[in-house]
Design goal:
Elements lengths: L1 H35 L1 H9 L1 H17 L6 H19 L2 H4 L2 H24 L5 H24 L2 H32 L4 H30 L5
Helix pairs in contact: 1-2, 1-4, 1-9, 3-4, 4-9, 6-8, 6-9, 7-8, 8-9
Amino acid sequence: MVIDSENKMSEFFSKVYLWMFIGLLVSGGIAYYTSVTPGVRGLVYSYFNLFLILELVVVIAFSALRKKVSPLVAKILFLVYAAISGLTLSSIFLVYKLDSIGMVFLSSALMFGLMAAYGYITKTNLSSFGKVLIFALLAVVIMSLINMFIGNGTFGIVISVISIVVFLGLTAYDMQNLKSMYDYYANDENELNKVAIYGALDLYLDFINIFLRLLQLFGKRND
């Protein structure tokens, strides 16, 4: 009975990571295609702010409709969000060297994997820690907005370092939260399928933010 339960949980997390991987693949593929296709690139950068707003609207709608949508609709919304993110992320292929992007991606994957494993196996309750991280994330957003106007390079480095710490912490928190969600919906296959998509989105966002901040710190720019 215990073995069956463990197998079922493994299947659940396999779905979570499969959808996270699909999201990253969609975003990465679209980002690269956009960067090497002048027509698409010109369209995206002509309406870049619009795509940023659309990206925000989709993820907010995705979260707001969590209890109302079917697993199929959740999958579609997740793929739409990943695709729009790919458009807005395309600039990294223009700013940074391709081998540098690859090295930072692998470094991000290693750091993400370690914190995800910690969140999965730890017996420490991370709930209160997660609340602190949410407030820290809000502080990072506010600091980032301020730095958009003052353009202080040192302040930008500090923000990036804090962001990496925050999103690594959120990775562990989100993993533990997913285990709790699994336990709650263990007998509801339909709801578990939906939770897997939303879990994939949470981890996707954690990974992307870790990757982007590391790229800002260590990425080698094109001449």
